[in-house]
Design a protein that fits this description.
The complex is a heterodimer of chains A (about 270) and B (about 220).
Chain A: H1 9-17, E1 32-37, E2 40-46, E3 49-51, E4 54-57, E5 63-67, E6 70-76, H2 78-99, H3 105-118, E7 125-133, E8 136-142, E9 148-150, E10 153-156, H4 160-170, H5 177-194, E11 202-208, E12 214-220, H6 254-257, H7 263-266
Antiparallel strand pairs in A: 1-2, 1-10, 2-11, 3-4, 5-6, 6-7, 7-8, 8-9, 11-12
Chain B: E1 11-12, E2 14-19, E3 23-29, E4 32-34, E5 37-40, E6 47-50, E7 53-59, H1 61-81, H2 89-101, E8 110-117, E9 123-128, E10 134-136, E11 139-143, H3 146-156, H4 178-195, E12 202-209, E13 212-219
Antiparallel strand pairs in B: 1-4, 2-3, 2-11, 3-12, 4-5, 6-7, 7-8, 8-9, 9-10, 12-13
Helix pairs in contact in B: 1-2, 3-4
Classes of the chains: A alpha+beta (about 270), B alpha+beta (about 220).
Chain lengths: ~270, ~220
């Protein structure tokens, strides 16, 4: 069966009604920004992923490549962002091979918004899409329900208010690449330090007309782990156990060893 | 129909205490937050009660503040009634229990930890639950990162579930020296700040010995 499975929908509803709470999803509870400059467009993101108030990943990558010239930054549910961008990059590759042209940013945007609208906001992907194509450089934002925005600078995620405060006060027209990189990283840092759901490092991607896109992983690293005061190695014999022993297993057939790791995929 | 909720979620980060043979340490971070916003990066949560007693109470901040005010009043009246006699930590702990249980059906949403020097000169850590159940302990953590800090203390202060490789017997709890204890506190908080978003900014450590009080400050991550 193609598409998502809703098999457990009614069961989960009744479990929720009886007080069994669903498990926490990993949220990128994020700060992401995008900003145009006079030769292209920049995307930037923090690298913290959270599960509630606990940091799930200290250095996750929120910038996704949809095509060589189109990138997007994702906020919201981590798994939805990973999957929806993976799906879209495949679709764009197929589309560009079929048409024999480099994909356009509006193509990615339109296709993604149709997908997200179909799922009525239940696919929790909040994206900033940026890229250059034959029609110029573009910057869009896309909400999980399917609405889109266009702008010279955009921010999304729980840290977007902090980021926007920087963008609104310092953005100007005709930024150079270096100015735009500085502005974007400063906007992300505002989110990193002032929004608890954002943190760790700043990733940044520069997409320029006529040049290969460049991903700066760890562009700013303002939160390095401090050296520990003590070391915490344990002496051998610290852990107690009931008894030590070993067992010998004989394998009768070579085929017993060759249980495929993909066995689960073969079940129809 | 929604009812007014008297409890809020504004809170300090986390705190931690270790008792030694001749010292007691109380530490806490100085971040104060509500939801995903930082209210303050410089809000001390260690209250000096006087008489060599220090208290943190993690949980709902307004209740924490009120508990400190209640305790200060109690101590002041104790001085008035007893010719300024110093309140011992065991008595202060019992007083704290009385205050907390006095609000049995409208409790202060707090997990207090109190340190002081006991009558025999040893360092004392007392910890409480919101209703007043309390105990003297070798170490205790409270607040948002208590689930991260407490197992670390069990492992490094009380050596829980560890054997001495030489004898094969359960590892004996040694009295920590002060420097080791302070280092453990620093490592505990830098570790907690890595994984708990409400912990960070500055670590404040109060060290209590027979010679007096020493306050130290260390930077934590600010993101």
């Amino acid at each position: 069966m193609a598409g998502l499975s809703f098999d457990n929908y009614r069961r989960n509803k009744s479990l929720e009604a009886s007080g069994v709470l669903p498990p926490k999803t990993t949220s990128t509870g994020t700060t992401i920004v995008g900003c145009k400059f006079n030769g292209g467009v920049i995307l930037s993101a923090d690298t913290r992923a959270t599960a509630g108030m606990v940091v799930a990943d200290k250095n996750c990558l929120k910038l996704h490549r949809l095509a060589p010239n189109i990138w997007c930054a994702g906020a919201g549910t981590a798994s939805d962002n990973d999957k929806v961008t993976e799906l879209e990059s495949s679709q764009l590759e197929i589309h560009s091979q079929w048409t024999g042209r480099a994909p356009r940013v509006v193509t990615a945007l339109t296709h993604l918004k149709q997908h997200l609208f179909k799922y009525q906001g239940h696919v929790g992907a909040y994206l900033i899409i940026a890229g250059v194509d034959v029609t110029g450089s573009h910057l869009f934002s896309l909400h999980a329900h399917g609405s889109t925005d266009v702008g010279p600078y955009l921010a999304l995620g729980s840290g977007s208010m902090a980021a926007l405060s920087v963008l609104e006060s310092k953005w100007k027209e005709d930024l150079t690449k270096e100015e735009a990189m500085e502005l974007c990283s400063e906007a992300i840092m505002a989110g990193v330090f002032n929004d608890l759901a954002s943190g760790s490092n700043v990733d940044l991607c520069v997409i320029e007309k006529g040049k290969p896109s460049r991903l700066h992983r760890g562009y700013k690293q303002p939160n390095q782990r401090l050296q520990k005061q003590r070391n915490y190695n344990f002496d051998i014999g610290t852990t107690s156990y009931f008894e030590a022993g070993s067992e010998v297993f004989y394998i009768s057939k070579q085929s017993d060893l060759e249980t495929s790791a993909m066995e689960v995929d073969q079940v129809s | 129909m929604s009812r007014f909720n008297p409890y809020g979620d504004s809170s300090g980060g986390s705190s931690l205490a270790i008792a030694g043979a001749d010292f007691a340490i109380l530490a806490g971070d100085t971040r104060h937050s509500t939801g995903f916003s930082i209210d303050s990066r410089d809000q001390s949560q260690i209250a000096d009660l006087g008489d060599g007693l220090f208290l943190t109470s993690n949980g709902f901040s307004a209740d924490a503040k009120q508990l400190v005010d209640d305790l200060r009043t109690q101590i002041k009246w104790y001085h008035h009634n007893n010719n300024d006699h110093k309140l011992s930590i065991s008595a202060a702990a019992r007083t704290t229990m009385m205050l907390l249980y006095g609000k049995r059906f409208f409790p202060y949403y707090v997990n207090p930890i109190m340190i002081g020097m006991a009558d025999d000169g040893t360092g004392a850590v007392y910890s409480f639950d919101p209703l007043g159940s309390y105990d003297r302990e070798p170490s205790r953590a409270a607040g948002h990162a208590s689930e991260l800090l407490m197992p670390f203390l069990d492992n490094q202060v009380t050596f829980a579930n560890q054997l001495d490789p030489q004898t094969g017997e359960p590892r004996k709890r040694l009295d920590l020296d002060l420097q080791t204890a302070v280092d453990l506190v620093k490592d505990a908080f830098t570790g907690a700040a890595e994984r708990q978003v409400q912990v960070g900014d500055t670590l404040e450590i109060v060290i209590l010995t027979k010679d007096g009080v020493d306050r130290q400050y260390y930077d934590l991550r600010r993101d």
